[in-house]
Amino acid sequence: MALSGGDSTLAQQDREEEIISSNNNNGFLDQSEPNTSLSSFINSRLNSSTPRSRQSSPANSPRPGPSRFSVADRSRDSQNDSSFHGFNLFGCLWDQKKQKSRQRAKRKVGRMWYGKKRVKGLVILICVLGVFLLVDWIMLFRLQNHGLHPNARSSRNSASVSPRLLQKGWKKFGKGKSAHKGIYGRMLALAAHALAEGQNKPEPKDLWLEPFIPASSWKPCADQHNWEPNEGKNGYILVTANGGMNQQRVAVCNAVVLARLLNATLVVPKFLYSSVWKDVSQFSDIYQEEHFINYLSPDIRIVEELPKELQSLDLESIGSIVTDEDIRKEAKPSFYLKNVLPILLKNGVVHFLGFGNRLAFDPIPFQLQRLRCRCNFHALQFAPKIQETGALLLQRLRQHEGHPGGPLDHYLVGSYAEAFKRQNQSHPKKASRYLALHLRYEIDMVAHSLCEFGGGEEERKELEAYREIHFPALTLLKKTTKLPSPQELRSEGLCPLTPEESILMLAALGFNRKTRIFVAGSQIYGGRSRLIALTNLYPKLVTKENLLSTTELEPFANFSSQLAALDYIGCAAADAFAMTDSGSQLSSLVSGFRIYYGGGKMATIRPNKRRLASIFTKNSTIEWRIFEQRVRKAVRQTKHVQTRPKGRSVYRYPRCKECMCRTE
Q1: Contact 569/428 with Cβ under 8 angstroms?
Q2: Which of 12, 110, 203, 344 could be disulfide-bonded to 235 (CB atoms 3.0-4.6 Å)?
Q3: Of 627, 640, 641, 642, which Cα lies nearest the Cα of 509?
């Protein structure tokens, strides 16, 4: 039966009173329950799917309010008694009107009370939800910047955080700066999670150690020699070495050996200006020239410059200039005796222009090989200004605390090591350990590798343009020869590790978030934004630019080779050293020095890039635990005491009878 307008209004009022009573009995923001927590209230609200109007029990059912039937009954009673109250009919009607007015007033008050109650409840609910959202935002922010909370160590808690959530949290760190994570966003998020969970776990026992017993049996002995000095009477050798500091160093050592082989006098080498390195530094700017001449005097004769009568010769016109194009890589000593010695005897001078890796490691006479080691490990010491700043760098890497030093420190920074040691004797604290990481990821290396690194078409165009300017021969080779594809190069381990791959390797090996990491070669392709992924996972990551002030670095500004010497010092003296490209000259020279002077105590991480490449290709699906296991196995297999393989560099593998003597 349809309700009239007035009946509809009354029914609506009845339902409102029923809802009010129902809500009161359900404890909706019940003020009589002071011990009810906000969190339990939120959970009860979020977890309940039952409408509030159905949650009350029959015992607590709301009392029915006044109905339209009760009003009608009273009206009929009044009409039946009209004979008795006829004279007061209008009074009765007035009483009914007053009663209805009182009822409406009560209902209005009820509605006002309920409205206030509801507004108050909504305000409290909004506040509670606001607090809940604030806490949730804080937890997400901590995840983005520091991983999970340090106490979140249980597998149950870790399982509740999905990789999707971690990736979502990874995207917004760095105050608006996005990390260049390329294809490794998922893996970097998992690494952040693992580092946050494991920051209180002990690191693997062998992480900072070499296999000491077999390594310590090798002792430096390249300083020993048993021949008469070379008179250098066959003429003069000029060398203009190309490349960066490390390539130039190799060229100098080869020139020393060649001078002994040809019985020639060596003029202090000069360094060729490079459009890549853009450095005008010469020998005396990087090395101690006097020490170099005097130390090698029992082996060869060295002078600072050509005699005046030879300086005026047009060496090109008389055929005394020999370039790298004239000599094949790693040419044997017999090549020089056959082709170069006649020119030297005829003209009295030969100028080697370039002279990179142009002398073989095998076969070569024992004493010549030892001379090569003697030059590299003993004769070439850095200039005083580099040693002084290098000693300051080491002091700050070791956090201003005393360090026992040793032969390697003395070789790298000379007397400045003792000076800083004396300054720190008043603070006899245990020195802090640090890991050095050489990121060989400068644009020249990236472009020359012919690899791709996830930057798409923009990256390909940029690297191709760089190759056309700086590596025209390589560009021509690409056009005329079918070369391996970037995918094939990567699968063969011929691509340098990216910064993201390097940091994932360190995290998988077990270095925790507290590890102090010194990054060499920080002028990486893609700019400093590429370091964001590293600093997010390892907050104690530093470079020489962080540790040294602008004033302290000013003498080295625009001298890339001198800056490289500071990186060399920081890497060589580290407690552990991680290389990312085994073909890098700096990594090879540093790892060799750590073997030669380290006494079997200086760990070096040499990644097997072919093995790592097969692991990284599964970055979108592999679980972190499996990733850890496979990376540790791949790196551990390279961490053994190895004697120099035939034909390999004595600078990188000095464990051979020419450079080191075995005590067993």
Answers
A1: no
A2: 344
A3: 627
Among candidate residues 205, 654, 575, the one with its CA nearest the CA of residue 404: 575
Distance CA 158, CA 166 (A): 11
Instruction: Report yes or no on whether pTM surpasses 0.85.
Output: no
Give whole-number Cα distances, 356 to 262, 342, 437, in Å.
18, 22, 26
Contacts of residue 509, defined as CB under 8 A and 6 or more positions apart, other chains included, come to: 204, 207, 605, 631, 632, 635
Q: Are 643 and 653 in contact (CB under 8 A)?
A: yes
Contact 272, 279 (CB under 8 A): no
Q: Residue 568, exposed/middle/buried by CB under 10 A (0-12, 13-18, 19+)?
A: buried
The end-to-end CA distance of the chain, in Å, is 111
pLDDT tens across 392-410, in order?
999 999 875 555 556 789 8
For residue 305, give the DSSP letter.
Answer: S
d(CA 229, CA 296): 9
State yes or no: pLDDT of 94 exceeds 50: no
Exposure string (b/e) for 286-299, b if CB count within 10 Å is 16 or more? bbbbeebbebbeeb
How far from chain centre, in Å, is Cα 38? 42
Other CB atoms within a 10 A radius of the CB of residue 639 amount to 15
Report the helix count and the strand count for the chain, using DSSP H and E: 30, 13
State both tokens at 652: 């990188």
pLDDT (tens digit per residue) in 179-233? 555 789 999 999 999 999 987 788 898 899 887 778 889 999 999 988 988 999 9
The least confident of 16-25, 107-116, 529-538, 655-664 is: 16-25
Q: Which stretch of DSSP H or E encloses residue 181?
A: none
Q: Give the span between the Cα atoms of 496 and 439, in whole angstroms.
A: 9
Q: Are 474 and 448 in contact (CB under 8 A)?
A: yes
Q: Which residue in the block uniquely carries the two structure tokens 């100098």?
A: 252
Q: Which amino acid is at 378?
A: H
